[in-house]
Amino acid sequence: MNNKSIMTDFYELTMAQTYFDSGKKDEEVYFDIFFRNNPFNGGYTLSGGLDEIINYVKNFKYGEEEINYLRSLKIFNEKFLNYLSNLEFKGDIFAVPDGTVVFPNEPVITVKADAVTAQLLETALLACFNHGSLVTTAAKRITNEAGNIPVMEFGARRARGIDSSIEASKDAYIGGCCGTSNTYAGMKYNIPVLGTMAHSLVTESDNEYEAFKKYAMSNPDNCVFLVDTYDTLKSGIPNAIKLADEYLKPNGIKFKGIRIDSGDLAYLSKEARKMLDEAGYKDTNICLSNGLNEYTIRDLKNQGACIDSLGVGDNISAAKERLGGVYKLVAVKKDDKIIPKIKVSNDSIKTTNPGYKKTYRFYDKSTGYALGDVIVLAEEKISKNNYTLVHPVDTWKQKRLSNYHVRELQVPIFKNGVLVYEDPSIQDKKKYCENEFKTLYPEVTRIEKPHEYYVDLSEKLRKLKEELIKMQTSKNIENAKVKIKK
Question: Which fold has domain 10-136+321-476?
Answer without folding.
Answer: nicotinate phosphoribosyltransferase (3.20.140)
